[in-house]
Design goal:
This protein is mainly α. Helices cover 72% and strands 0% of the residues. The protein has 2 domains: 109 residues, Leucine-rich Repeat Variant (Alpha Horseshoe); 71 residues, Leucine-rich Repeat Variant (Alpha Horseshoe). The longest helix has 23 residues.
């Protein structure tokens, strides 16, 4: 642990980046504060990107606020996207509102990460903003939205049914799977 933590302070980014990645794999709470520092202060985007991902792997709630700040203000799409995914892995409800706000401006891989995270958090506040993306031009986004809505459930059956006619096969498959998940949840709810 100590050599990796020290490596986060190395002057060379190509030493700091793999150190941040490795610290995320070790699942040791001593790495949380050094990784938060790297996420917040490192000048190199790849180091911040690896720190964002590593913090999600560690599962420590101390990382929520720094990850939210990175989601809202880091200049690089990859850092924001991994911050979103890490917030989803952490499962903390404090992340829902910032992730919903991020839906308005996110693009590409960052948008996919935000949608994925909202699906992991399974908060009904995300249903309406996510459903608004079912008509997105990017089929990958539509697919991720269908998966997320399937995890959340709720009143999204009709928009998902429309995706069953989507021109992209993977989007149709994701919608089918999401509808099955919702149906299964409904049966469990009625049965209990």
């Amino acid at each position: 642990m100590e050599p990796l933590i020290q490596a986060l302070g190395d002057e060379r980014h190509f030493v700091r980046e793999p150190a941040a990645l490795a610290l995320g794999w070790l699942n040791d709470p001593r790495a949380v504060e050094p990784l938060i520092r790297a996420l917040e202060t490192d000048k190199h985007q790849f180091v911040r990107w690896r720190a964002a991902g590593a913090l999600g792997n560690l599962g420590d709630p101390r990382a929520v606020e720094p990850l939210v700040r990175a989601l809202e203000s880091d200049e690089y799409n990859d850092v924001r996207g991994d911050a979103a995914r890490s917030l989803g892995r952490l499962g903390d409800p404090r992340a829902v509102e910032p992730l919903v706000r991020a839906l308005r401006r996110a693009l590409g891989k960052e948008l996919e990460g935000v949608v994925w995270a909202l699906g992991e958090l399974r908060d009904e506040k995300a249903v309406e903003p996510l459903a608004g993306l079912l008509g997105d031009d990017d089929w990958m986004v539509r697919k991720e939205v269908a998966i997320a809505l399937g995890k959340i459930g709720g009143l999204v059956v009709e928009p998902l049914r429309r995706l069953l006619r989507d021109p992209h096969r993977v989007v149709r498959q994701a919608a089918r799977k999401a509808l099955k998940q919702i149906k299964k949840k409904d049966r469990k709810t009625r049965g209990s």
